[in-house]
Automatic annotation (TrEMBL):
<feature type="transmembrane region" description="Helical">
    <location>
        <begin position="128"/>
        <end position="145"/>
    </location>
</feature>
<protein>
    <recommendedName>
        <fullName>CDP-archaeol synthase</fullName>
        <ecNumber>2.7.7.67</ecNumber>
    </recommendedName>
</protein>
<dbReference type="GO" id="GO:0043338">
    <property type="term" value="F:CDP-2,3-bis-(O-geranylgeranyl)-sn-glycerol synthase activity"/>
</dbReference>
<keyword id="KW-0808">Transferase</keyword>
<dbReference type="Pfam" id="PF01864">
    <property type="entry name" value="CarS-like"/>
</dbReference>
<dbReference type="GO" id="GO:0046474">
    <property type="term" value="P:glycerophospholipid biosynthetic process"/>
</dbReference>
<dbReference type="InterPro" id="IPR002726">
    <property type="entry name" value="CarS_archaea"/>
</dbReference>
<feature type="transmembrane region" description="Helical">
    <location>
        <begin position="88"/>
        <end position="108"/>
    </location>
</feature>
<keyword id="KW-0812">Transmembrane</keyword>
<keyword id="KW-0594">Phospholipid biosynthesis</keyword>
<comment type="function">
    <text>Catalyzes the formation of CDP-2,3-bis-(O-geranylgeranyl)-sn-glycerol (CDP-archaeol) from 2,3-bis-(O-geranylgeranyl)-sn-glycerol 1-phosphate (DGGGP) and CTP. This reaction is the third ether-bond-formation step in the biosynthesis of archaeal membrane lipids.</text>
</comment>
<keyword id="KW-0443">Lipid metabolism</keyword>
<keyword id="KW-1003">Cell membrane</keyword>
<keyword id="KW-0472">Membrane</keyword>
<keyword id="KW-1208">Phospholipid metabolism</keyword>
<keyword id="KW-0444">Lipid biosynthesis</keyword>
<feature type="transmembrane region" description="Helical">
    <location>
        <begin position="151"/>
        <end position="174"/>
    </location>
</feature>
Length: 181
């Protein structure tokens, strides 16, 4: 596969993992998952990880994956690249895995003395990628191996932080997010 095709496949395959966090920013809030409880001196997760954000984010990601599956063939023909469809377990794995990765990062941030909203460069940009890929690989190793080849994974690791910084910067500028990371 040439580089452009590799980038297109990487972006397409990761879209169901990219949108959940943004959907949570737009539509989240309400009751925190940790119920306000502490572990030691600090919150288990903090007020930034809510039930609504997690459920709605996962739902939006799964919905997008199913929509992409419907149009993978015509879009793939138009751009002359074979694009993946998303079996339901994979759709769920990518979307929910992204949310779990982000929640895991908040757990680590609280354990390392960082308050809600504090930056943790590197972790902030890749937490959801690790969660999404791990859960997708766990639910359907064959699908994962077919689409997430070495070059596709390399593109994901390089491009995701750039996209993350870009979308969060826009969300901050539009006053949708409290910090630009
Ligand atoms: N959000 C949510 N539920 C989630 C993830 C995010 O409701 N599972 C919403 C919250 O309103 C959160 C916002 O999206 O404040 C931004 O997400 P994020 O930057 O991940 O959270 P922070 O508030 O920065 O908290 P943390 O330091 O724990 O990452
Ligand atoms: Mg944040
Ligand atoms: K985060």
């Amino acid at each position: 596969m040439d580089l452009v095709s590799t980038v297109v496949v990487a972006f397409w395959a990761m879209l169901p993992a990219y949108v959940p966090n943004n959907a949570a920013v737009l539509l989240g809030g309400g009751r925190p998952i940790d119920g306000g409880r502490n572990l030691g001196e600090r919150r288990i997760l903090g007020d930034g990880k809510t039930w609504r954000g997690t459920i709605v984010g996962t739902g939006v990601g799964v919905g997008l994956a199913l929509l992409l599956s419907e149009v993978a063939t015509p879009v793939g023909e138009a751009v002359n690249v074979a694009l993946p469809t998303f079996p339901l377990p994979v759709a769920f794995g990518l979307a929910f895995g992204a949310m779990v990765g982000d929640i895991g990062a908040s757990f680590l941030k609280r354990r390392t003395g960082r308050d809600r909203g504090a930056a943790f460069p590197g972790l902030d940009q890749l937490d959801f990628v690790v969660g999404a890929l791990a859960l997708a690989a766990a639910v359907d190793p064959a699908w994962f191996g077919e689409w997430f080849t070495g070059p596709v994974l390399a593109v994901v690791v390089v491009v995701t932080p750039l996209l993350h910084v870009g979308t969060n910067g826009v969300a901050y500028a539009l006053d949708l997010k409290e910090e630009p990371w």
